[in-house]
Amino acid sequence: MAVRDIEEGVVDSNSTIPLKQHFVFVHGISGGSWCWYKICCIMENSGYKVSCIDLKSCGIDQSHADSILTFDDYNKPLIDFISDLPDNEKVILCMWQQLC
Question: Per its record, what are the GO molecular function terms (predicted)?
């Protein structure tokens, strides 16, 4: 399927309906996908595709924190999600971290 970018978003060459961008939100340390619930609701209601990822041992992920030995372990849910996307799908990756 041929896809081209236009000012309003992405349009499938077989369609006249603009598709909005796909945003992927990732929480910071000691957070979870729940951090993004307000912005996700607003964006989904505006027609955007939104995904919120729980990193290892955060949010609804049941992994024990002591089982995470590397950043690769911690980031695995995000890497798996991105790897499973169709080859032609682009996302806007949004991350946020607040340290006191």
Answer: methyl indole-3-acetate esterase activity; methyl jasmonate esterase activity; methyl salicylate esterase activity
pLDDT of residue 29: 80
Where residue 69 sits, what CATH number does that domain have?
3.40.50.1820
- In angstroms, the CA 68 to CA 9 distance is 38
pTM: 0.72
Q: What's the total number of domains in the chain? A: 1
Note the maximum CA span of the chain: 51
Alpha-carbon separation of residue 44 from 5, 34, 36, 60, 96 (angstroms): 20, 15, 12, 21, 19
